[in-house]
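Researcher: We plan to redesign the surface later, but first we want a full-length starting point. Tokens attached.
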């Protein structure tokens, strides 16, 4: 089937040269080496802005190959053009057959390589590479070149969709003001949320994960799944977190927890709490949840807890590897990845301890990769007599999709919740 389709594609191109502009196949997708050569020559001529036919392609090979080889290719082109229909009407269908069979060959090769690595080298990590290679096949044939007309129409469609979703282009952040500033968490973006300890950054991440309304995976390098579960009960059910921790139960409290638990159980939500997890394992877990369970967003708690791929790496090298790998993973999977990050303790010594992007540990590497950087700050952590008790600030330091500035939200520590304020915007 594939060989016949390959013949028809080559014949159609030789007899209808305008079809080359519509064909996004690559030479590797042909199974016959001679067809790879012929199609490669056709692409070369098109990319150079030159026309082609059997004669000019024959000259192309004559100038680059030994006489016997060039003559053989010329003969094959003549035979294909003579014996095949080269149907214009079926051209796209024949291209799809070529691509499908190429993908089947690639899947077989990936499976064979995986079997070899497991049987011969006892390499269990080969499964991660196999999963990544299989997912990469989805990008074969994807168009990356667009006319301005295409781009404008796509932009208008996105505006219409955002209008229908009250301005939300990406995934729900769980914070209405943050939705306004960013349009939601956008696919392929790396979002960094930085804060000092005790600010509530893990609670903020879990609020976001609970309200994102899509299947989510949380990499919890900081806390075990039981702790995450108890926090989620408090957030979802407005249940006193301290009473959950100390098991101060009564009938009403148990009922309230039970209702929250039933709602949470229905969510598509996965937690990995592997201790000492490294960046390779993080990618494996997120990739598997996307591939197997349909996860649409990943959360990582937190960057500095993730180990590098080598024990010999410096903290700066680890930060660079973790941030760049998370960004590449977001692009590969086309999902947002939200990662927490620790802020240097030097901010504690400043008169105004509000952190900025430069206060992130190994800030240069993280700042370079991130699409959105938000710093979390609560004045009451530093100043007991502050008038801003129960208020958290989200300081948007970098935003590729909108403005920067300060957002003020309510922090309800009893329930570990972040909620809107009535007077919300100051200098944003």
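Model: Full-length starting sequence:
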């Amino acid at each position: 089937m594939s060989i016949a389709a390959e013949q028809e594609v080559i014949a159609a191109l030789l007899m209808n040269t305008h079809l080359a502009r519509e064909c996004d196949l690559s030479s590797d997708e042909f199974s016959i080496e001679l067809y790879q050569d012929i199609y490669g020559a056709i692409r070369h001529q098109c990319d150079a802005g030159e026309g082609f036919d059997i004669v000019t392609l024959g000259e192309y090979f004559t100038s680059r190959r030994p006489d016997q080889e060039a003559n053989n290719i010329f003969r094959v082109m003549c035979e294909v053009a003579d014996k095949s229909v080269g149907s214009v009407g079926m051209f796209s269908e024949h291209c799809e057959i070529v691509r499908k069979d190429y993908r089947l060959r690639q899947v077989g090769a990936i499976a064979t390589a995986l079997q070899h690595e497991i049987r011969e080298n006892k390499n269990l990590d080969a499964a991660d590479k196999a999963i990544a290679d299989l997912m990469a096949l989805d990008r074969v044939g994807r168009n990356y070149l667009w006319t301005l007309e295409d781009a404008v129409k796509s932009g208008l469609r996105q505006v219409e969709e955002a209008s229908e979703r009250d301005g939300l282009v990406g995934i729900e952040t769980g914070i209405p003001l943050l939705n306004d500033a960013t349009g939601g968490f956008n696919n392929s973006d790396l979002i960094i949320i930085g804060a000092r300890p005790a600010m509530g950054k893990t609670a903020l991440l879990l609020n976001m994960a609970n309200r994102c309304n899509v299947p989510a995976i949380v990499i919890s390098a900081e806390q075990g799944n039981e702790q995450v579960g108890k926090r989620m009960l408090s957030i979802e059910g407005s249940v006193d977190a301290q009473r959950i921790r100390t098991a101060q139960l009564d009938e009403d409290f148990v009922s309230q927890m039970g209702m929250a638990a039933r709602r949470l159980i229905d969510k598509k939500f996965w937690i990995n709490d592997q201790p000492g997890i490294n960046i390779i394992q993080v990618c494996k877990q997120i990739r598997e949840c996307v591939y197997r369970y349909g996860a649409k967003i990943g959360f990582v708690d937190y960057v500095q807890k993730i180990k590098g791929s080598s024990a010999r790496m410096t903290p700066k090298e680890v930060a660079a590897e973790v941030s760049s790998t998370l960004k590449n993973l977001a692009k590969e999977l086309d999902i947002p990845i939200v990662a927490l990050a620790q802020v240097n303790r030097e901010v504690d010594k400043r008169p105004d301890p509000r952190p900025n992007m430069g206060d992130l540990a190994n800030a240069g590497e993280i700042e370079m990769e991130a699409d959105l950087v938000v710093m979390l700050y609560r004045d009451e952590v530093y100043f007991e007599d502050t008038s801003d008790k129960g208020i958290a600030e989200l300081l948007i330091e970098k935003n590729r999709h909108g403005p920067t500035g300060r957002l003020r939200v309510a922090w309800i520590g009893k329930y570990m919740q972040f909620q809107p304020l009535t007077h919300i915007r100051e200098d944003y």
